[in-house]
Amino acid sequence: MTATSFHPPQRILMGPGPSDVNPRVLEALSRPTIGHLDPMFVALMDDVKSLLQDSFLTKNKLTMPISAPGSAGMETCFVNLVEPGDTVVVCQNGVFGARMKENVERCGATAVMVQDDWGKPVDPNKLEEALKANPDASIVAFVHAETSTGAISDAEALVKIAHDHDCLTIVDAVTSLAGSELRVDDWNIDAIYSGTQKCLSCTPGISPVSFSEAAIEKIQNRKTTVQSWFMDLNLVMGYWGEGAQRSYHHTAPINALYGFHESLVILQEEGLENSWARHAVNHEALKAGIEAMGLGFFVDEAYRLPQLNAVTLPEGIDEAAVRSELLNRYNLEIGAGLGPMAGKIWRIGLMGHASSQQNVLTCLGALDSVLTNMNAKIDSGKAVSAAMAAFS
Amino acid sequence: MTATSFHPPQRILMGPGPSDVNPRVLEALSRPTIGHLDPMFVALMDDVKSLLQDSFLTKNKLTMPISAPGSAGMETCFVNLVEPGDTVVVCQNGVFGARMKENVERCGATAVMVQDDWGKPVDPNKLEEALKANPDASIVAFVHAETSTGAISDAEALVKIAHDHDCLTIVDAVTSLAGSELRVDDWNIDAIYSGTQKCLSCTPGISPVSFSEAAIEKIQNRKTTVQSWFMDLNLVMGYWGEGAQRSYHHTAPINALYGFHESLVILQEEGLENSWARHAVNHEALKAGIEAMGLGFFVDEAYRLPQLNAVTLPEGIDEAAVRSELLNRYNLEIGAGLGPMAGKIWRIGLMGHASSQQNVLTCLGALDSVLTNMNAKIDSGKAVSAAMAAFS
């Protein structure tokens, strides 16, 4: 075959991620590649670590980006902290809790599942019961912000219960970092992973992680070798460790880290709390528009994520056709439901650079127009002005 | 801390990788991000697979880029093909054979090591002996082009011996792909992995892999679950598989794949065999210059890689000071020795976009000048003209 250069269309990314990337990040990706042991790159790594600590609100020394997507960040947490024979309590209220279970079992450990309905937060009482019933459990894992449903759980409360039962905690913050309040040190989280393609306005492919002193102690005192060479933090620490004496582990994705660094600089300029607030404001306006249309939300307001909106469908609509129309006519991507939620909700992301007044209005206008043209049962023509009113 | 945007210097990358990136690849990285399930992206994935098949000279259906660096491509091969209790023959003649051993052992298998001196190719006779002595071995693993020494092994011969003993083969082609003759189908290689940051002129962070039908059959008939969720090809195949019915596995590193695709388009334009030839020509000129200086090569000419030149040091020189001077005065990066080769050789890469007449002359001129200024025992002032003569 004869292939030619690929020139992607300019989409508006309002699905579950990747979300819109800040143009400064895209520009940073194209800067000249330097060596991964170049003193200038080593200095950049220090900068990245420090900025990432700020975004996680932690002083954890072992805070760094894993050179692979969020799924690899998740696996890095599990393969380092879980040993064969361990019991891990996994709280599940969506797709990603199931993936945690897979990770636990592939480490040769037993996963005790705490199930909550999809769209609900993790119930702290159920976790408490599970820990009482499983006194040998050593780790509790849960998702802070479920990307599959748009529900947020009370991470602080869950971590406290876990610690009361002498368990370490693994927290999925893929969708929450920079979009929702998240305080790694104040909440005493032991291991956390996130992604770059959600509220950080960066391209996908990197997974920020952070580990507490207690987590590091556990990793350094393992009885068994970490099953993954690539993800073994004992080795990765040597590369991302202190000072210039870094030992070669793998070749870092240099240009991807330029982009990630730029996204962290942008976050610093805005301010972490301002970023949380921006996500909240834009959600309120989107909500006003969605409700004016006569549509609803899958998740109760009390634990609804501002950055990931699970919107219920108008009766009898071909939801895939609506998404195709949005993509083809407006270059606008919104997300489908995942797993059991397929065909039941849309997932509208307002994450990172995509969380803007312009995107809220564009999305509502386009959705209103497409649904009206398809004779959907909605209140047509009201969404945009309702959002405008919410903004003003 | 207050951080600002990072603006890297414009280096000339002539170490063991990353090597110089084609400017078209850098530009491609900064194109607009689209969704990983976008029909346009799915079409790009098909293009990438097809171009990658061409570069590996294979028709293997399971040919794709792993969303992480070469080390993860290596691990993907091992965790999918090796099961606990297996015996794997690993041929070692440099750093990366040792890493293969680590991978085998972390899969719960036994590694039988076939050792050759560093700088020598793998000895087919030793492999034959090891397989006779270990009839239960099911896999043979070796490095085609050892980045730590610059020696190439006879992959075709080694695979044939492995197959004669009913073993599948795992081949490290990180440094050979697009730089040296490599024929996956003609040589009947079962599993192969490479990197993007060597002879493909692309940024680091992606690992191309390819698997034969026999390898796929073995993966699909495993008795045990693959220990890594992220690298489980049974799951990854669902994402990179045929047609539009792709199941979500992880979020692909969209922009990194734009860059990778562009690098494959550039390779197609040049022609694979022309790329091999270019690496050979530039090596000959570098060799003429190095020898005119009175320096030598660590690896015998018969199995010396053109793209990775292990050059012996002038007597009594502070080799790290030379590299610093080259970096600081000329923005030129060459590599140090790795592991036991540290302080004994330089590794001068002529890989991908870095394999150019201009780079050969710049490197020789700069090295000649720096060494002369440091009163090293070399024949000064002859290197560049010797290389020019070789080019003409």
Describe the structure using short key phrases.
Aspartate Aminotransferase, domain 2, 392 residues, seven-stranded mixed β-sheet, homodimer, 13 strands, alpha/beta, 13 helices
Topology:
2 copies of one chain form a homodimer.
Chain A: E1 12-14, H1 23-29, H2 39-56, E2 62-66, H3 70-81, E3 87-92, H4 95-106, E4 110-115, H5 124-133, E5 137-143, E6 145-146, E7 151-152, H6 155-164, E8 168-172, E9 191-193, E10 207-211, H7 213-220, H8 233-240, H9 254-270, H10 272-292, E11 308-312, H11 319-330, E12 332-336, E13 345-349, H12 357-373, H13 383-391
Parallel strand pairs in A: 1-12, 3-4, 3-5, 5-8, 8-9
Antiparallel strand pairs in A: 2-10, 6-7, 9-10, 11-13, 12-13
Helix pairs in contact in A: 1-9, 2-9, 5-6, 10-12, 10-13, 11-12, 12-13
Question: Are there runs of chain A of 5+ residues with pLDDT below 50, and where?
Answer: none
Along the chain, the helix and strand elements of chain A come as EHHEHEHEHEEEHEEEHHHHEHEEHH
- What is the CATH architecture term of the largest domain in chain A? 3-Layer(aba) Sandwich
Name the CATH homologous superfamily of the largest domain in chain A: Type I PLP-dependent aspartate aminotransferase-like (Major domain)
Oligomer: homodimer
Number of domains of chain A: 2
Rg of Cα set of chain A: 21 Å
According to DSSP, the number of beta strands of chain A is 13
CATH class of the largest domain in chain A: Alpha Beta
End-to-end separation of chain A in angstroms reads 54 Å
The description of the largest β-sheet of chain A is: 7 strands, mixed
Mean pLDDT of chain A: 96
Give the structural class of chain A: alpha/beta
CATH fold annotation of the largest domain in chain A: Aspartate Aminotransferase, domain 2
Beta-strand residue percentage of chain A: 15-25%
Question: How are the strands ordered across the major sheet of chain A?
Answer: 2-10-9-8-5-3-4
